[in-house]
């Protein structure tokens, strides 16, 4: 083996196929999704239309709340999902060869796979438009020739939890989001707008005018364009935009502090060090604070377990079933109402609550209606929506979902089911067997899983055969494990994926030589609540932003929320001045004395030599006689 050459450099990389944990199931065994050919039978029956499943089982009228967790738990799920998966779509809605426009056809013509209505439904058009995911341009080598020929789908972002949704997954995108004129390694800010307290907003997209909605009561006013971030889905909903804004500000805050501490660092060094810290924050919040609340502790210990270091044999690539089914577990918990709260966590008198469909691609509401704080308080100060078998998806996402470039409201449940068939995902029972769970073979067994007799009977009536149940649907109807927010199947699939994302990432924050032990201890103090305190005008927070308690019970002043001491990062990855000397050195015309430069050269040589030693030098220290200052460099 050649030293320093990665054996699998494409694992987890952007623009690579999702991995398959089970072979795809297509009607022609290669590319046609289930339901493509009318009359095709599965276990003696036709598959139900996904719209029928959505309308007859998934629809919900009420909004039960979860007294244990805040709405932030739901929003973080969508946010971190956008750091892991982004399925490539077919490049256009029309086929060049056939000239068919997927927005205007109800026929199955590649790449169009419309969501058809049952005969009992009526309307202007008897289907919803649906365009298939783009096929991957290459696949991993496999000894199974049949599987090698099957259609695969592409993840266009890095699979790692690496804050790619803050920075982007391509060099071009990363460069476009940076303030290259600054020596502080910061991200570019909005040049036109600030929030009410003068804090920065994300920059606007370059292509103007953008498709984002505008204030209907101010048609002649200044446009508020779509925001630009490392992930183009930043504008899909206001809570998502809020979290993007939070970490964009946190990068710039950390970069400013690192530059103050290490004034000799180049802009590139500051940017990369700040980015490294932001990536670690995403990993810590997700794995330490978020996942144990989604999985019960027993499932977390079984499927993920304690960290034992980087394992180069583990493929961290996102799996197709994770991206297309398991990590869509949170869609039933989407609230139909966006709560906006004031400083006392009461309904905001100036900015009332909004229906979900009013928040989609409506960034003007952040700029013109109080900034991100009213929305953020609603995310941490309101109980999350939970689900039950007879209350799965709200009307806001079943009838009023807004998708850019589609001139009609969509149905999220139907989209999820159709996407699973588009990707050739095996059925619910196949995945239960994969996870070591018993397949559902009888109505009584289904009733024990769903815990609702009428819903179980309705499922069998619609699907006709239990082996025909779609995996996403099967996963969300399972009763939750105790102290969990998902059932046995999704616990398995999500746990398996999260362990792979952690153990197969050689830059995971706990991995050897990524951070020093002191830095790891300091990073462990981080919390989403602290990040909120540092980047907004919110003065009181719950110490765990994912936990729900009615204000003011359990809330603390921001001064009492632990913070990271960035002084411990002053000696990482560069030759550094002692803390606090930057201002002194600015008075010197060259910044430092010739003697100091000589000292840096000496330390540089020691550091270079240290890389080839078989023992560890923790630090090199010396005392400057004229100033009586002690200089240390961690190597």
In words, what does this structure look like?
There is one protein chain. Helices cover 34% and strands 6% of the residues. The chain has a domain of 60 residues. The chain has 22 helices and 14 strands. A two-stranded antiparallel ribbon has the order 1-6. The protein is mainly α and 635 residues long. The C terminus is likely disordered. Strand 13 and strand 14 form a beta hairpin. The chain is globular, with a radius of gyration of 26 Å.
> What spatial form do the alpha-carbon principal axes imply?
globular
How many alpha or pi helices? Answer: 22
Strand order of the largest sheet: 1-6
Helix-residue proportion: 25-40%
Task: Fill in the keyword field for this structure.
mainly alpha; heme binding; peroxidase activity; two-stranded parallel ribbon; 635 residues; metal ion binding; disordered C terminus; Haem_peroxidase_animal; iron; globular; 22 helices; two-stranded antiparallel ribbon
Secondary structure layout plus pairing:
Layout: E1 16-17, H1 50-58, E2 59-60, E3 65-70, H2 72-84, E4 115-116, E5 127-128, H3 145-148, E6 154-155, H4 164-167, H5 171-177, H6 238-261, H7 267-294, H8 297-303, H9 320-324, E7 337-338, E8 354-355, H10 364-368, H11 373-380, E9 383-385, E10 393-394, H12 395-398, H13 412-422, H14 428-434, H15 443-450, H16 453-463, H17 471-477, H18 488-503, H19 517-523, H20 528-535, E11 540-541, E12 556-557, H21 582-586, H22 594-610, E13 619-624, E14 629-634
Helix pairs in contact: 1-13, 1-16, 2-6, 2-7, 6-7, 6-20, 8-18, 15-16
């Amino acid at each position: 083996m050649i030293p320093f050459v990665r054996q699998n450099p494409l694992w987890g990389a952007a623009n690579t196929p999702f991995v398959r944990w089970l072979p795809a199931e297509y009607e022609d065994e290669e590319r046609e999704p289930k339901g493509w050919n009318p009359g095709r039978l599965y276990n003696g029956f036709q598959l139900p239309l996904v719209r029928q499943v959505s309308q007859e089982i998934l629809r919900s009228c009420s909004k039960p709340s979860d007294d244990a967790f805040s709405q932030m738990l739901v929003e973080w799920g969508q946010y971190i999902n956008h750091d892991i998966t982004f399925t490539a779509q077919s490049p256009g809605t029309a086929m060049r060869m056939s000239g068919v426009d997927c927005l205007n056809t109800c026929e199955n013509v590649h790449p169009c796979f419309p969501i058809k209505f049952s005969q009992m439904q009526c309307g202007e058009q008897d289907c919803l438009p649906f365009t298939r995911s783009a096929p991957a341009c290459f696949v991993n080598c496999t000894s199974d020739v049949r599987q090698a020929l099957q259609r695969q789908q592409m993840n266009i972002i890095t699979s790692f939890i690496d804050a790619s949704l803050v920075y982007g997954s391509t060099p071009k995108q990363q460069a476009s989001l940076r303030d290259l004129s600054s020596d502080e390694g910061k991200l570019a800010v909005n040049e036109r707008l600030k929030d009410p307290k003068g804090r920065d907003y994300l920059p606007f997209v370059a292509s103007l005018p953008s498709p984002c909605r505008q204030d209907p009561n101010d048609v002649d006013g200044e446009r508020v364009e779509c925001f630009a971030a490392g992930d183009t889905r930043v504008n899909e909903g206001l809570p998502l935009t809020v979290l993007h804004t939070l970490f964009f500000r946190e990068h710039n805050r950390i970069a400013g502090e690192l530059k103050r501490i290490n004034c000799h660092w180049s802009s590139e060094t500051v940017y990369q060090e700040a980015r490294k810290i932001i990536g670690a924050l995403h990993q810590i919040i997700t794995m330490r604070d978020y996942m144990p609340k989604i999985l019960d502790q027993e499932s977390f210990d079984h499927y993920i377990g304690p960290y034992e270091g980087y394992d180069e044999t583990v493929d961290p690539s996102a799996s197709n079933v994770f991206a297309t089914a398991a990590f869509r577990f949170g869609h039933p918990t989407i609230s139909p109402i966006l709560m906006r709260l004031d400083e006392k966590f009461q309904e905001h008198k100036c900015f009332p609550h909004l229906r979900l469909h009013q928040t989609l691609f409506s960034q003007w509401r952040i700029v013109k209606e109080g900034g991100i704080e009213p929305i953020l308080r609603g995310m941490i100060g309101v109980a999350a929506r939970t689900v039950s078998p007879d209350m799965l998806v709200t009307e806001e996402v079943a009838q009023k979902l807004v998708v850019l470039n589609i001139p009609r409201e969509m149905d999220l449940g139907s989209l999820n089911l159709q996407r699973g068939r588009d990707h050739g995902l095996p059925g619910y029972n196949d995945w239960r067997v994969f996870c070591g769970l018993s397949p559902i073979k009888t109505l009584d067994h289904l009733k024990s899983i769903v815990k609702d007799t009428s819903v179980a009977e309705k499922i069998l009536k619609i699907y006709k055969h239990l082996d025909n149940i779609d995996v996403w649907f099967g996963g969300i109807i399972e009763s939750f494990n105790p102290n969990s927010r998902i059932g046995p199947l999704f616990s398995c699939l999500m746990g398996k994926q999260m362990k792979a994302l952690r153990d197969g990432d050689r830059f995971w924050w706990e991995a050897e030589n990524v951070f020093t032990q002191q830095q790891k201890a300091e990073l462990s103090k981080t919390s989403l609540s602290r990040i909120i305190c540092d980047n907004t005008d919110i003065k009181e927070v719950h110490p765990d932003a994912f936990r729900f308690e009615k204000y003011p019970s359990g809330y603390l002043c921001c001064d009492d929320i632990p913070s990271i001491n960035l002084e411990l990062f002053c000696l990482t990855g560069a030759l550094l001045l002692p803390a606090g000397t930057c201002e002194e050195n600015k008075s010197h015309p060259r910044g430092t004395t010739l003697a100091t430069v000589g000292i840096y050269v000496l330390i540089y040589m020691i550091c270079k030599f240290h890389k080839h030693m078989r023992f560890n030098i923790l630090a090199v220290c010396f005392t400057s006689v004229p100033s009586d200052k002690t200089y240390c460099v961690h190597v």
